[in-house]
Amino acid sequence: ETSEPDKEQCYRKALDLLRGLTAEFPDVPDHADNLARACNSLASMLLASGRSEEAEPFCRQAIELQEKLLASYPRIPGYRHLLGFSFVNMAETLISTGRLREGQDAFHQALRVFEELAHDAPDVPLFRQSLARCQDALARFLVSCVDAQSRDPARAIELAQKAIELAPRDGEFWQTLALAHYRTGEWQSAIDAINKSMEYRSGGDAHEWFLLAMGHWQLGNKEEARGWHDKAVEWMGKNKLDDEALKRFRAEAGELLGIKEKKD
Question: What is the pTM of this model?
Fold first, then answer.
């Protein structure tokens, strides 16, 4: 299996070649399109490895390339589709570097691109799927952002419901909706949505179970709440996930239920 450093080196070599082709043949749109795709791929890889600041210039180059292509070839939907993903990449990169407002703006730019695509070509499943994923990603940001001032759970409910209309069997979308309902104090609606998430995710995992624990606790079902909390903690112990968002969720559930975590 190719190591991450080797993959990165391959991406960078490909970028050098594609930059040369794009400069030498500026009237061949496929070269610019392939260069934008390579920029997005490298940016995604850097972002996944925690190197967000390094990813940002590649996101910006991809966006610049796709916007130029669209200006020259507005009728090619593939260029617009990739532009949407470039904005999503940019949003996630900006958010990971703490620039939350800029990241949210990039999400809204991506959302506009995907909405236009889905409107112009409603029979293309890929465009509907991309729109739904963008709606869910923005909803998840609005409901779980580390900065409470940037949260908007009511808007998150609206976006999550729209995503579910497009993909009703996607458990992750139901999970987002459940969290948004919980943040607005709609405990039973949160439980109902998380049950749908578990239905479509083969019973779910700690992401659902901590939320179920908190929802049942808020409704006074304390024994059931402790059962779901313990199940979630056990799952985390077996899977040893180093997931900061899930750790925060566990801490929130433990505080609500009055459970003191054991020190490792």
Answer: 0.90
